[in-house]
Amino acid sequence: MIPRQEFVSRFGGVFEHSPFVAERAYDDGYVGEELTVDRVHTALVAIFRAASPEERLGVLRAHPDLAGRLAIAGELTEDSKQEQAGAGLDRLSGEEHARFTELNAAYVEKFGFPFIIAVKGLNKDDILAAFEQRIANSGDAEFATATTQVERIALLRLTALLPA
């Protein structure tokens, strides 16, 4: 079996800045001999879902704003940087950037965490449309949607790290 430190080093960032998910998955015996996308994702998601609401909120809050200040300052994690660039969020016009900034601020004010969406396969227009639609959600509905998106992001990140 893979040593704990190696497992946490490899998978501790799959849930943005939240290594506790990988640590608990390992410590609770969810990690088997064969590390596949499905097995590791199932283990990490089980831990994430079992986490307290405050811990899950912390995971949501660990995500950066889309096209936000961290992106401008070049301070995104490598995964987030590649994900946002793949959706064209690093090439926004001034008007588009202003709209994302406005929506980011309104969203965080309403929900207390940044807008989270698995951007793979989406473009800036798709993301903007989802942003404008989801900002009308209730707090409970958006918390559920955001956590589902976090799990999808984790799956996409694991797919890049492991065999199917």
Explain this structure.
With 164 residues, this protein is an all-alpha fold. The protein has helices spanning 4-11, 20-27, 37-50, 53-61, 69-73, 78-86, 94-111, 124-134, 139-161.
Radius of gyration: 16 Å
How many separate domains? 2
User: Which CATH architecture of the largest domain?
Assistant: Orthogonal Bundle
Structural class, from helix and strand content?
Answer: mainly alpha
> What are the low-pLDDT stretches, counting only 5+ consecutive residues below 50?
none
Tell me the quaternary state.
single chain
Any idea of the CATH topology of the largest domain? Answer: UraD-like
Chain-wise SSE layout:
Elements: H1 4-11, H2 20-27, H3 37-50, H4 53-61, H5 69-73, H6 78-86, H7 94-111, H8 124-134, H9 139-161
